[in-house]
Amino acid sequence: MADYLLVQALNGLVIGVIYAVIAAGLTVIFSILRIVNFAHGEVYMMGGYFAYFAIKLLGIPPMGAVLVAMALSLALSVVVERAFLTPLYSPTTERKGDYGILVTFGISIFLRNIALIIFGPYPLRPPSFITGALIAGGFVMTWDRVFDAAAGVLMLIALLWFMHRTSWGEALNAVSQSRESAAICGINDQRFYMLAFGLGGALAGGAGALVGPIYSLSPSMGLIPDTQAFAIVILGGMGSVAGSILAGLLIGVSESMFVALFPDPSRSLTYAQAFSLLVLMVVLLVRPTGFFGRTHTALE
Amino acid sequence: MRQDSSKSRSVLRRRDVLATAGAAATLPMIGNRARAADPIVLGWVGPLSPPGGYAEGTNMKYAAEIALDEINAQGGLLGRPVQIVYADTRGMPAEGRTAAERLVTQNKAVAVFGEFHSPVALAEIEVFHKYGIPFMACDVWSDQITAKGYPEVFRNAPSVSLIDVTIGQWIAAAGFKRVAIIAEKNDVGLAARTLVAKELTAAKIAFDAVDADPNLTDFTAQILRFKSASPAYDFLLTIYSEAGAYPMVRQAHDLGFAPTPACGIYNSGGQAVNPTFWENVGEAGKYLATENVGLPKSAWNDKTKAFVAAYKKRHAGDDPSGAVMESYDGAWLLFDAIKTAGSTDSKAIISALEKTSYVGVRGKYAFSTEHEPAWHYHQFLGAPLTILQYTEVKQPQSDAPIVWPREFATVPYVYKKPGT
Amino acid sequence: MSGSMTPLIEARNLTMRFGGILAVNALDFAVHPGELVGLIGPNGSGKTTTINMLSGHLTPVGGEIMVRGSAATGRKASDFATIGVGRTFQITQLFSRMTVLENMLVPGLARPRSHKAAVTETARRHLDFLGLAKLEHLQARNLSGGQQKLLELGRALMLEPSILFLDEPFAGVNPFLRDEIIELVQKLHADGRTFVIVDHDIEALQRLVRRMVVMARGRKIADGTVDEVRHDQEVLRAYAGF
């Protein structure tokens, strides 16, 4: 039994790391631009396809293709931000939150359908990062999943290092706390909005590239992870990257453990996602701002 | 003089009357000439975008396009060109209903065919029944579609009752004793599960069933739970037609659950006969069994061969699946019925379909008019259905050994255990 | 006033409109290096709007802004900050979740070749000057209101501004802190910095500034020494009207 639970928990952690990467990207975008990015799941999807075609057309090895996917996802996000989101920074734009939702929702529909046209409706699967599986007694995990977990953790560490140990990351942090203050400190906020949106997109695209070999790619693959990511961002505390990471891991593990242990086996899989929302509700009842959320947002 | 003028007035009146009558007599002919140039409009429904099964929907649309090109190359129907209006129903019943209304009321379709999702078809048939428009349901398997008894509705695909009874019978014949089932949580998945369960129960085979959201792609936790069960399962039946079917098969293999010498695997729903199956599942597909609702290669007629060649030419060498063949035959069944009826009148088309003996790429068609059991009504009872089991990686579906029903079997065994 | 020198900052015919309201109307205003100017006026006279334009937080609808003789109209607030225009706000704008020291280091992030050690040393020097040295590890949100004002001033100093706009530095502070702020500004002015101070505390300004500019209803109505302004009839009328 202990072996079984360990395997389920570890598998849940792997999924949780992927969720955390996606959610951390969403958090970076929200904390700087103050919008909910409904196209995040589609950038995740595009990242998967970028990696696939980098491998197929350019012969780049799968691991390198993840970096290519991240770079292209960053570029795609910057283009989207420059083309559609600059009205958010204008004092004459009203109801910026609504604007952000509507525009990113439209972009998500556009990306999903353009992917359908360009990449076709058939699921595609890029080659494995590492073939085979890690088998130790009763424990089985494909090397792809092990790689995904390791790469995801590296991405998160890199993100935290960037946010806390580089001047750009510290400047992003400053902009997230007070745009006005950042401006009078000489920080060009528009540059950092672009950076934040691009960074969030790079993380989503990287996650998409990682999951290609284990989940296959399809234009609609971003729908479920995107919904999970919103719940995770709220659970972690809006605007807290560390909170998103912790919440992502928690949701990944709790989904797995729920399926593993729910007494009625015929319903365990069906209810797993509802369970993660239940976790969210319970935590919010006890801690309304999520794990590390602020009690109020700064006045602009 | 007065007499003369009255006489001339009456002559004029007669002339006027004759001229008017002559004009009136020619008007229908003028009208007919105008109408003769109007195309006969048929409608096609199916998923062309998410969240529907757009991969297969797109393939089915390609098949309809081939049929359309062929009929127009022959001069159309009743001296008129044929036009097909394609409606993307996205796998959503509300969209299906809207599309059906639009096809009938705006596009003036005289008949409609297609669809890939039973819940959507169930919404569409209400509209077609309301307007009395004939509908040839293609790759939708829910018994309810024909069980409702609507005279307008026909189906050229098998129903779940046909399919899942066959699967259940095969599982029993193959000797499995304890089955794990993952079924997609929608009408057809649940209906399929129930029907298979009935067969397994009758054969005294133990089973446990789990329902899964159609958009899921990670089944690891569930598969691990199955794998850890005691007593162990010797068969995994996956009733899953969405994109997640591939990761499910892969994950079962990667976790060492199925296929193994101890546990077989089956995927029902059509994904395992898609061209992208092998790219997505790789090694995991070897020894997987699945149904094919197309005609087995041994029963291919000239039309089948011609269609397969035309389809492969258009679509990068991919073999057409059973659903694709149904869509193609669906178009041709309607063309044939209109030709036989000599008109586009709904009742005439329906009557022609009821009497049809059209030979298509899937063999000779006949639609039952029995109401007992209810799903028999307007069902193609002879819908070809075989169970195949892959024995090599990247094996084309048309080359895979057929294991059931035995009259079509191409190998002496019912099930090949991995490693044997 | 050094009339022959290029002004540090100059507003020429500056105008700002909010919908139908003319908040600043054709303002001409120049500040030369080394000046210490008070900017006063009744509520709604356009003082803060003027500062917002002169620090890049608002783009004027008419007129020009020149900084050291070069056109700067329409540039962003961050650009103004990097070309030497510093400011504080009426309601302090700090990075509340950062410590006092971290707040001081933020301006250094905008500079391409800043060395963290040198910047930190400068920051500590300023904090010492402001009497905040012992609080460097405290989160900014945990400071008192007066301490927050001092921190905001210190942070503005980190960009080595040529001119500093202080927006109501004496608002809501106790008399001791007011005196402290006056003394600090005098010291900084003696070191060569130029100040424009907006406030309603005329008494504090009188102790500090040599030149007073008065605005009313968006227009400049007086510009002279404290005495001149105090006896200006239009100024008296403007204040009496409220």
Describe the protein in words.
The complex is a heterotrimer of chains A (300), B (420) and C (242). Chain A has helices spanning 2-33, 40-58, 62-85, 96-119, 143-165, 167-177, 179-184, 189-215, 223-236, 241-261, 265-286; strands spanning 133-136, 139-142. With 300 residues, chain A is mainly alpha-helical. Chain A has a domain at 15-221. Chain A has a two-stranded antiparallel ribbon. Chain A is globular, with a radius of gyration of 19 Å. With 420 residues, chain B is α/β, with parallel strands linked by helices. Chain B folds into two domains: 40-158 and 299-376, 3-Layer(aba) Sandwich (Rossmann fold); 161-292 and 390-408, Response regulator (Rossmann fold). Chain B is 44% helix and 15% strand. Chain B is built from 13 helices and 14 strands. Chain B has helices spanning 2-37, 54-73, 93-106, 118-131, 144-147, 160-174, 187-202, 220-227, 245-254, 277-281, 302-314, 322-341, 346-354, and strands at residues 40-46, 82-88, 111-114, 135-137, 153-155, 178-184, 206-212, 235-239, 264-268, 288-292, 359-360, 363-364, 386-389, 402-404. The radius of gyration of chain B is 26 Å and the shape is globular. Chain C has nine helices and ten strands. In chain C, the strands form two sheets. A six-stranded mixed beta sheet of chain C has the order 6-7-8-3-9-10, with helices on both faces. Chain C has a four-stranded antiparallel beta sheet with strand order 2-1-4-5, with helices on one face. In chain C, a hairpin with a 2-residue loop joins strand 4 and strand 5. Chain C is globular, with a radius of gyration of 18 Å. The model of chain C has no long low-confidence stretch (mean pLDDT 90). Classes of the chains: A mainly alpha (300), B alpha/beta (420), C alpha/beta (242). Chains A and C meet through helix 6 and helix 7 of A and helix 2 and helix 3 of C.
Euclidean distance between termini CA atoms of chain A? 54 Å
Strand order of the largest sheet of chain C: 6-7-8-3-9-10
Total helical segments of chain A:
11
Q: pLDDT average of chain C, as an integer?
A: 90
Element order of chain A: H for helix, E for strand: HHHHEEHHHHHHH
- Spatial extent as radius of gyration of chain C: 18 Å
β-sheet strand percentage of chain A:
under 5%
* Widest sheet: strand ordering of chain A: 1-2
What integer value in Å does the Rg of chain A equal? 19 Å
Quaternary structure classification: heterotrimer
Structural class of chain C: alpha/beta
Q: Major beta sheet of chain C, specifics?
A: 6 strands, mixed
Count of β-strands of chain A:
2
Order of helical and strand elements of chain C? EEEHEEHEHHHEHEHEEHH
Helix content of chain C: 25-40%
| Overall morphology of chain A | globular
- Mean pLDDT, all residues of chain A: 90
Shape of chain C: globular
Tally of DSSP helical segments of chain C: 9
* Major beta sheet summary of chain A: 2 strands, antiparallel
